[in-house]
Specification:
With 384 residues, this protein is α+β, with helices and mostly antiparallel strands. It has twelve helices and ten strands. The structure holds flavin-adenine dinucleotide (FAD).
Length: 384
């Protein structure tokens, strides 16, 4: 049963959705996802298949070898990945948007030409290393330093919760190049080879998203050529702000797709589970739970598409992006929580998929600027 209909999508977007779902069914069958989740393994085969089929080009302009997809195309693509499996969606988004977009938007011509084609072909994976043990929401308080030494920068510090760093070829690191500068100044973005001497990456054990899992990173006198600065020295803060719209829309789109998946799963279960000699889907209280889940899925989707339409029209959509991020990630976890209740004991069992949906959806309100931070953004816009 498919609740995520294609009404309002263009013919190309419908074909893309179908093509992506077919490809994933072939290269990432469901029993493999459960095995990878248990083993905390990365979905390499599906990732490479998506790249080989050219889908990773959707994020980048034609002059960099991409397809120049619109924001709506990207939203539909990520929603489709999130619907199939959030782990593959997170893996793609981390390389292509969180980290790759910094290179594509602000990198030198040399960096763009050497890195973006490798991202598109699947030959390079990237991770964004921003958060630190002492600074999560308060990004500007970061302590990692990158100090000039001739033509190089010497990187020292510690990052934490960095998605996909364990499989990354490059890290996009946010560091203080001028430790004496005021809070939002003297911060730079630097491309760092994960194989450089002095880089240590330690996988962390997390509740969910185990296949694209989080890592701790240590930089111990890592020497990086200054030509790896992305967007010039001291420019990181303003550039990070310019990437937020796409990042948050991406997170929201993945969550929207996941809402539909969870709703379908719970609906299918409720139609088959017999109690008191009838399917539990015949009890009005269960029907209302499933209807609430569908409403949350559709509301999530509408908020993402609204952001995509505004961004495509050249509007910054700051308010709408924060709202979509909150609506989609909160709805995602609420769908999982209600869905788990619909399944009863089976929902709480590790034998069924619902527990994975529950664990995977919990991170949405925390990552990508927590939902409390989004509300701070909205309060500021309301002049409160
Ligand atoms: C699975 C996972 C993957 C991640 N991937 C990455 C990644 O790839 N790269 C990366 O750089 N980071 C990543 N992160 C880090 C993520 O961005 C941070 O966890 C997030 O920004 C919150 O920071 P924190 O965990 O330090 O919480 P804190 O900042 O300590 O916040 C704790 C609580 O206080 C609230 N809070 C803090 N400040 C305020 C305020 N001013 N007003 C109201 N409430 C406030 C927060 O909303 C939260 O509820 C990841 C995190 C997780 C869990």
């Amino acid at each position: 049963m498919t609740l995520m209909n294609t009404a309002g999508l263009s013919e190309e977007q419908r074909m893309m959705q179908e093509g992506v779902l077919d490809l994933l069914a072939k290269h990432l069958p469901w029993d493999q996802i459960r095995k990878l989740d248990d083993a905390r393994g990365f979905p390499h085969e599906a990732y490479n298949a998506l790249a080989e089929a050219g889908y990773l080009g959707i994020f980048y302009p034609e002059e960099l070898g991409g397809m120049g997809g619109s924001y709506k195309d990207i939203a539909v693509f990520l929603e489709t990945l999130g619907y199939y499996y959030t782990g593959i969606a997170q893996a793609v988004t981390t390389t292509a948007i969180y980290a790759g977009m910094h290179v594509a938007k602000f990198g030198s011509d040399e960096l763009k030409k050497s890195i973006i084609p490798k991202i598109i072909s699947g030959h390079a994976k990237l991770a964004l290393a921003m958060s630190e043990p002492g600074t999560g929401s308060d990004v500007a308080g970061l302590k990692t330093t990158a100090i000039r030494d001739g033509d190089d920068l010497i990187l020292n510090g510690n990052k934490v919760w960095i998605t996909c760093a364990h499989v990354a070829d490059y890290l996009v690191v946010i560091a203080k190049t001028d430790p004496t500068a005021a809070r939002h100044s003297g911060i730079s973005t630097i491309l760092v080879d994960t194989k450089a001497p002095g880089v240590t990456i330690k996988p962390l054990s997390m509740l969910g998203r185990r296949t694209s899992h989080a890592n701790e990173i240590f930089f111990d006198n890592v020497r990086v050529p200054a030509t790896n600065l992305i967007g010039g020295e001291g420019q990181a803060w303003k550039n990070i702000m310019k990437c937020l719209g796409l990042e948050r829309m991406g997170l929201a789109a993945i969550s929207s797709g996941h809402c539909f998946k969870i709703t379908e799963y719970a609906t299918d279960y409720a139609k088959q589970r017999i109690q008191f000699e009838q399917p539990i889907s015949k009890f009005q209280v269960i029907q209302h739970k499933l209807v609430d889940m569908l409403i949350m899925s559709e509301t999530a989707r509408q908020s993402v598409y609204r952001v995509a339409d505004l961004l495509d029209a050249g509007h910054p959509a700051v308010k709408e992006t924060s709202i979509a991020k909150i609506v989609c990630t909160d709805n995602n976890f609420r769908c999982a929580d209600i869905g788990l209740q619909v399944l009863g004991g089976a929902g709480y069992s590790m034998e069924y998929d619902m527990q994975m949906f529950f664990r995977d959806s919990r991170v949405g309100p925390i990552g990508g600027g927590s939902n409390e931070i989004q509300k701070n953004v909205l309060a500021k816009l309301m002049d409160l």
